[in-house]
Amino acid sequence: xxxxxxxxxxxxxxxxxxxxxxxxxxxxxxxxxxxxxxxxxxxxxxxxxxxxxxxxxxxxxxxxxxxxxxxxxxxxxxxxxxxxxxxxxxxxxxxxxxxxxxxxxxxxxxxxxxxxxxxxxxxxxxxxxxxxxxxxxxxxxxxxxxxxxxxxxxxxxxxxxxxxxxxxxxxxxxxxxxxxxxxxxxxxxxxxxxxxxxxxxxxxxxxxxxxxxxxxxxxxxxxxxxxxxxxxxxxxxxxxxxxxxxxxxxxxxxxxxxxxxxxxxxxxxxxxxxxxxxxxxxxxxxxxxxxxxxxxxxxxxxxxxxxxxxxxxxxxxxxxxxxxxxxxxxxxxx
Length: 334
Prior knowledge:
- Helix content is about 30%, strand content about 15%.
- The protein has helices at about 10-25, 60-70, 140, 170, 205-210, 215-220, 230-245, 270-275, 295-334; strands at about 40-45, 110-120, 120-130, 150, 155-160, 180, 200, 225-230, 250, 260-265.
């Protein structure tokens, strides 16, 4: 439900977080390169020989669990949603929350059905798709506000309080995973008509549940035990063992410089990729994807720093104006 009176308030803490991110982006102190440390790092294994798409269910159990866990993640959307100048592009999925056959701001996991012909025999595979949680994610290193982090446990998480919805993370993601919801987020209180355009959303590997010692909801809900989670080295070894055992194939170990998601399949991934109707919210599965911006992260940050500096200038102006208004109101009360 839309609510024009439910814009998030810009707290002093949020302001300081934004300022710190923008200062870092200006080159005074770049945020630490988001890179997996190797200790305590988790990874997931998705075995396509086991996933059956949950026949008889409206949506697969993993998708339903993910939707339930994240159903209240996005706050009420502003009405009307500001149309940022000059593009005037607004992305609003708030009236299509039930969509489950692609990635959206309200759906972080979907299952692709791949119809294949294997040596003349029809074969169906079901392929859960979500963020790969890359080892050295360009989406995290490029964010001008350091809103995207690669955590030590392997999860790549977007901080909703810091994200301005600029979608640079989506641009550098080879699978274009993050999805934008306009009309929410901190940009509404800075320069909503000129800078920012909402918040980017994607799977965070149930980061909060991991912190409580629980498994991600999708893994816990899978009736086929087609998904596993554990220490990265162990998951990789298990993925390689299963791929060898089924004389199959492995995806995610080398793609984009390495990820924390390993798929094993009895069918080559280029053949699975050929069955995918690519488009927004439906990422390809092309083997051997190279990391975008490899070797050019610094240049990319410099280019992206300009809007960040502009935004923090807007934040400072807002805070200054607010202080003046408070002082005037206090004088009236005297």
